[in-house]
Each structure stands twice: as structure tokens, then as C-alpha cells.
Structure prediction request, 131 residues.
Amino acid sequence: MRMLGLPARDDQVLQLVSATLQRNVRSHDLVARFGGEELVLLLTRIDLAGAERLAQRIRLELGADTSILPHESSLTMSFGIAAVNAPAQLDTALKEADRLMYGAKNAGRDRVHTAQTIYPDPGLQLLTAAP
Prediction:
């Protein structure tokens, strides 16, 4: 989530994102702010495909909202999704999700990248497209 640098509008965007996340997760899931512009969703009893569908639904819902940003702008959100199968894996999964999220941002933003999926490197595509 990239804030705009406009305190009143930033607060509105954060409130919209928070409300959208809370509306889309289940009561036993956790939504938390994790650093300045990063959020973590800890989803239980769901596989990677289900988590990806949820992230896509949230991303599309936020992108369609026109209540806060000017009409020529849209809210985008990039997701990185990793699995945690045991409490000892949490730190590793957070690092993997962070790497995937930055990969989604570098691939053009407003995307969902999931562990165990291979994504093309946009830097390599630029190199191969050069004359």
C-alpha cells in the first residue's frame, strides 16, 4: 500500500483498506499493520489457492472503489502469499511473503504473487526486448 503524502486522504485510504480487509476475512483471521505501508493477513484453515482468491477479491474491490481518490487514480494493492504450516515457519513465511510482494510491485503493481509459483523477471524481459 503506497500512501499519498496527504495526511487527511492517507487516513481515508487506510480506513478504506482496513474496512475492506476486515469485511473480506473471517472472524478467526488476523489483519495487522506491519510497518509503515505494509499489512499482514494471517489466514488460518485455507490453502494457497484460497488465499490467492481472497487477495484477488480484495485487490479488485479496492481498485473499483472511487470514493476517495480522484477519478483518474485508482487504489492498487500488491500481495505476496506464503504458507505457514508450523509456528516455527512464521519468520521464514513472512520473509517469503515480503519477497513475493516486492516481486509483484516490480512486475507492475496491483498483483498477487503466491509461493510455489514461478513469475517472469521483468528485468530479464526488458533485456531480451532490447534491439
